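Database export, one record per block. Field names are fixed; values are copied verbatim from the stored entry.
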Amino acid sequence: AVLLGTHALQPPKCFDSLKCSESSETSPVRSSTRLVDLFDDQLALVKSVRNTDWLELIRKLNGDGNVFRTSVSLPPPGAVKMRLFGEPRTNCAGLVWDRSQVDLSEAYIWPSGYVAKTEFNLTHKGELVNGRSSALVTIDRLVECNRRGLTTNAETGELQEVADGATMNFNEINWRLGRGPGGSSTTGRRVVMTGW
């Protein structure tokens, strides 16, 4: 899936399938505008979810005492020129979190183009293996890389500018979310489900 530019979309039609939870914003126009603002300001953490994985993800999110790690991407300003993880036919919808509402202090963050393969390089204790920690960046560095259109060169590992007209590969933020003991949420207040 490729994110389309949010400036080209006009609320409320742009997010007809938008479903908001834990939000006092009931107007579709206001909700759509808020979502566009999140993308414009690089505050939208996007998780594309495989069509077959929704029930398992919802079970994990609702489970008491079930804190787990998952990966999201932070699109560039305006949510343009970045390829998301997965393909539209197998990952036709996803979740968006407001980055200002979540705790990324224990997150692992890699820039666009770096293949972290966390499903193979993260232990059950949440520790990185196989050299994956060498390419970690801070959230501030990721925001800057997105703003400048920088991606990781697969051959050298160095950051380079994306060619004019090219699409960046997804970046990866692997973080802890879920409900801790007693129901305290680590997911943040705003969770939005939307179709691509």
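Remark 1: Residues 6-195 form one domain.
Remark 2: The chain has four helices and nine strands.
End of record.
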